[in-house]
Amino acid sequence: MMTLAELAYWQSTSLRVVGGFAAVLLMAGTLVYLHLFKLVSFMQSRLGPMETGPYGSLQLLAEVGKFLQKEDIFPRKADRFVFAAAPFVVLMSTFLLVVVVPGGPDAWFIDSDLGIYLAMAVSSVSVIGILMAGWGSANKYSLMGGLRATGQLIAYELPLILAVVGVVIQAGTMNMQGIVLAQADGEIFGWGAIGNPFILTQFVGLVVFLIAMQAELTQSPFDMPVAESELVTGYMTEYSGMRFLLFFIGEFATAGVFSAIAAVLFLGGWYVPGIDSDSNAFNVIGPLVMLGKVVFVSFLVFWARFTFPRFREDQLQRLAWKFLIPIALVNIVATGILKVAF
Amino acid sequence: MSDFLRSYLTVAIFGLMGVALVGAFLGLARLLRPDNPTTEKLESYESGVDPTGDMWSQANIRYYIFALLFVLFDVEAVFIFPWAIRLDAYGVFGLIEMGIFIFILLLGLFYAWRKGLLRWV
Fold first, then answer.
1. Are A297 and A267 contacting, i.e. CB atoms less than 8 angstroms apart?
2. Minimal Cα distance from A175: which residue of B?
3. Which of A29, A49, A252, A310 is most enclosed, with most CB atoms within 10 A?
4. Same domain for B70 and B26
5. Mean pLDDT of A231-243
6. Residue A166: closest CA among chain B residues belongs to which residue?
């Protein structure tokens, strides 16, 4: 059987492009349907969409069809180029992020040794897109929302990066495949029956990572930049029709990709205990295992989103700088000491 | 082209995929949507009342000090990652070195904290 690595570059890249579109759109669709439509409905004792398709599963297509027919409005005072370019930048950052996520031993987009470091670097691109949207709209709410988002995203980028360092210390590599294999073949103090999923040995890192991720995704309780009661969805106020939907797709696709990165870093990625980690079977079941783990991690994200009320803007920076960053730094030192001692 | 550079070509292609997706959706929408702009529609939104003044109003963003701190810690992260990969090779020496580095950084953070820079306002 031919593996992906033996194909010519243009062939394997064509497959990867298809895989990339599938990964982003499927994850975004799954998250919106499962969590935003159904989970929140069940949490609020209602059924959610039921009419379009079995259990409302075609509601997504109906929504896209609706948004496609909406008029596209450019506010007269808007900075037209910046206003139009912002959705491109936001979606681009999502696709740049998904590139590091592996789906199996041979099913990867790139196998770079920079891996997670690259992901942390390109995750900042979305900040530029959001600031462009806020500025280009020429609207007071949008400007405030864009500025709030920027302040929030750079503040929580640090705990996110520092939480990853603990994983990198344990795995000894920044390569995403290497991190998966380190968890698959590792052992916890000599006990290797289930490998070493870092959720057990890096639990503090996971908690810091998930909180920072919530803020990076501007999901409630960190949704001050899009606060509908204060800023009327912030940087998205002036966007209508398809452009608004693209921001929406970008938000949920990014939530999916971040969940995937968290799944790789802390839950063992495409690996499940019981099957040999270099088995070819993982090229088939790996992507499904990843999807399962993504749904689990994003379930935590949306559970928090639908449960907690919004923070006040002044509490935001305090949580990042006074709690998460010191905890993450102490976690790095503790992980280092344990790594050297054992 | 080496595999190393090729993997970055793949990254660039993925960036273009984002642009292509947005372009495709907007192009499709262009074919389907109505286009009927009126003066009222093109007005900036301000909770339903007529917008006043310049839209790019001045706002106290209060973040510049956080931005400075962010740059400081971001540079530190650049130093921590190579250390984290090679910790096995460095052993106790590397641990003590990084312990001192992180201690100094934490000291800086606590100084900023004590000076009240991490407070809102």
1. yes
2. B85
3. A252
4. no
5. 82
6. B84
